[in-house]
């Protein structure tokens, strides 16, 4: 099994995905252990002084004015975890919680938090044992960190609350730790606060969304090319010289992908035949411009994610010169903004895909295809209601595109009077990504059927490869009406797995 070593420098996005999704093992490097020990010595020295230090010898948030004596500090740290583990609602997905735990461990190992090495090791032990704390949907405002979600994780470290074992069975955390020979931690000065104060949940979800969207944006180029082909459109609008004069890199990449898929097609270029068209409709002609703008949005979001991966988000932080300073780096605005931006791009990509599907099904605009791609229109309804499903998904995506990050709400007796809502932005983006996959699955289903209905014309070799792979995956072709839901489910699974991209790449080589 792959092992990810956590040091004092930033981990990579692929490291996060390996731990979150693939169950990779985690090890602490020697430099991380040394940095942890050095920062802890600083915290211990401050704890021994009579002067109050936030997070070490004071209360938290609006209660930070109270000095806490040494005899109450273990209780203070335990209490912050218990009281902040106040989440409600459905359980958060396993991969999100594992990403959350791993990213918090990454920051702890930076040497800026003051957490003891043995606490960091226990965090790694939980990940390696497949123990996943039960985290709930609601509880983070995306400021002062993803507080409730991280608190539920810290609660498991203490042997309290509930967690899921490697088989997905929820049991008391104390039982799970004991079964794996893991001793619960007793938190000391600053450690409870350090385990809660990060943007780890929203960052983990951003990284997973970026990985999923990389596949889906390539898939969108494939489905757009298939739709153009099925509509007997022209590929001349994809010529590199046309995109070079508007030099957005994403646009050029999408156009190049579509052109590669369509190379060798006998269906393109018939727009001047029986019903002449000077130009194809926007949803066909402008596909690279819309998908390309989304690709450029992804590039910006990746830059933000990389910067956040390199960050040590905590308050207060231990600096290399031995100072422990309060700060506002836990505010999730940088991550929240790009999460919202991606939701907008996703909604628009789905919207243009739905418009192409509708065009394929409308006999007045499909240039010779049967109504709704039905076998015997009137007796058969064809894909009429598949487009309804697609339209419902697009409508929800528009609602999900409303930014969460503009909806600050004050908390903690107005001490925390402006928050990012980044966790909420991340949660709705996950739903949006799921819906985009379904929308593209419907377009793929319609476009492949439409191409096969163009008798006497041979599709591009890459298109043929996509159609053959789709049929092999259980996605049915033309014919009389049948139960559509299983076909659509197969198309959804095919799209999510990158099946359409993999199929065309056997002909085109790697897409951009």
TrEMBL record:
<dbReference type="Pfam" id="PF00221">
    <property type="entry name" value="Lyase_aromatic"/>
</dbReference>
<dbReference type="InterPro" id="IPR005921">
    <property type="entry name" value="HutH"/>
</dbReference>
<keyword id="KW-0369">Histidine metabolism</keyword>
<dbReference type="InterPro" id="IPR024083">
    <property type="entry name" value="Fumarase/histidase_N"/>
</dbReference>
<keyword id="KW-0456">Lyase</keyword>
<comment type="similarity">
    <text>Belongs to the PAL/histidase family.</text>
</comment>
<comment type="pathway">
    <text>Amino-acid degradation; L-histidine degradation into L-glutamate; N-formimidoyl-L-glutamate from L-histidine: step 1/3.</text>
</comment>
<feature type="modified residue" description="2,3-didehydroalanine (Ser)">
    <location>
        <position position="144"/>
    </location>
</feature>
<keyword id="KW-0963">Cytoplasm</keyword>
<dbReference type="GO" id="GO:0004397">
    <property type="term" value="F:histidine ammonia-lyase activity"/>
</dbReference>
<feature type="cross-link" description="5-imidazolinone (Ala-Gly)">
    <location>
        <begin position="143"/>
        <end position="145"/>
    </location>
</feature>
<dbReference type="InterPro" id="IPR008948">
    <property type="entry name" value="L-Aspartase-like"/>
</dbReference>
<protein>
    <recommendedName>
        <fullName>Histidine ammonia-lyase</fullName>
        <ecNumber>4.3.1.3</ecNumber>
    </recommendedName>
</protein>
<dbReference type="InterPro" id="IPR001106">
    <property type="entry name" value="Aromatic_Lyase"/>
</dbReference>
<dbReference type="InterPro" id="IPR022313">
    <property type="entry name" value="Phe/His_NH3-lyase_AS"/>
</dbReference>
């Amino acid at each position: 099994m792959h092992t990810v070593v956590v040091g004092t420098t930033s981990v990579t996005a692929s490291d996060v995905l390996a731990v979150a999704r693939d169950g990779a093992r985690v090890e602490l490097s020697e430099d991380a252990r040394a940095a942890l020990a050095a920062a802890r010595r600083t915290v211990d020295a401050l704890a021994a002084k009579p002067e109050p230090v936030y997070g070490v010898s004071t209360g938290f948030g609006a209660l930070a004015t109270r000095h806490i004596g040494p005899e109450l500090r273990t209780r203070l740290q335990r209490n912050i975890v218990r009281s902040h583990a106040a989440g409600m609602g459905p359980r958060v997905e396993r991969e999100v919680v594992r990403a959350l735990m791993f990213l918090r461990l990454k920051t702890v190992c930076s040497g800026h938090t003051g957490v003891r090495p043995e606490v960091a090791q226990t965090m790694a032990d939980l990940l390696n044992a497949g123990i996943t704390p039960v985290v709930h949907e609601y509880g983070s405002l995306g400021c002062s960190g993803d507080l409730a979600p991280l608190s539920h994780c810290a609660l498991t470290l203490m042997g309290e609350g509930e967690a899921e074992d490697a088989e997905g069975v929820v049991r008391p955390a104390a039982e799970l730790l004991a079964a794996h020979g893991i001793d619960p931690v007793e938190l000391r000065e600053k450690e409870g606060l350090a385990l809660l104060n990060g943007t780890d949940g929203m960052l983990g979800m951003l990284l997973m969304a970026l990985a999923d969207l990389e596949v889906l944006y390539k898939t969108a180029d494939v489905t757009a090319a298939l739709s153009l082909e099925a509509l007997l459109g022209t590929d001349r609008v994809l010529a590199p010289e046309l995109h070079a004069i508007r030099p957005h890199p994403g646009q050029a990449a999408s156009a190049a992908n579509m052109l590669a898929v369509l190379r060798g097609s006998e269906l393109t270029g018939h727009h001047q035949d029986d019903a002449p068209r000077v130009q194809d409709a926007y949803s066909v002609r402008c596909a690279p411009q819309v998908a390309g703008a989304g690709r450029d949005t992804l590039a910006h979001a990746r830059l933000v994610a990389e910067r956040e991966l390199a960050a040590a988000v905590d308050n207060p932080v231990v600096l290399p010169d031995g100072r422990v300073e309060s700060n506002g780096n836990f505010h999730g605005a940088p991550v929240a903004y790009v999460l919202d931006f991606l939701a907008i791009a996703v909604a628009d990509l789905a919207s243009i895909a739905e418009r192409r599907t509708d065009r394929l099904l409308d006999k007045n605009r499909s240039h010779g295809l049967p109504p709704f791609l039905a076998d015997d229109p009137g007796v058969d309804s064809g894909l009429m209601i598949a487009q309804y499903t697609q339209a419902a998904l697009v409508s929800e995506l528009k609602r999900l595109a409303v930014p969460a990050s503009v909806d600050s709400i004050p908390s903690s007796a107005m001490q925390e009077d402006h928050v990012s809502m980044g966790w909420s932005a991340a949660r709705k983006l996950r739903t949006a990504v799921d819906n985009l996959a379904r929308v593209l699955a419907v377009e793929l289903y319609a476009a492949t059927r439409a191409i096969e209905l163009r008798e006497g014309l041979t599709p591009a070799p890459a298109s043929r490869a996509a159609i053959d792979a789709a049929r092999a995956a259980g996605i049915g072709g033309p014919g009389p009406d049948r139960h559509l839901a299983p076909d659509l489910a197969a198309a959804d699974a095919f799209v999510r797995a990158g099946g359409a991209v993999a199929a065309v790449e056997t002909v085109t080589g790697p897409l951009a």
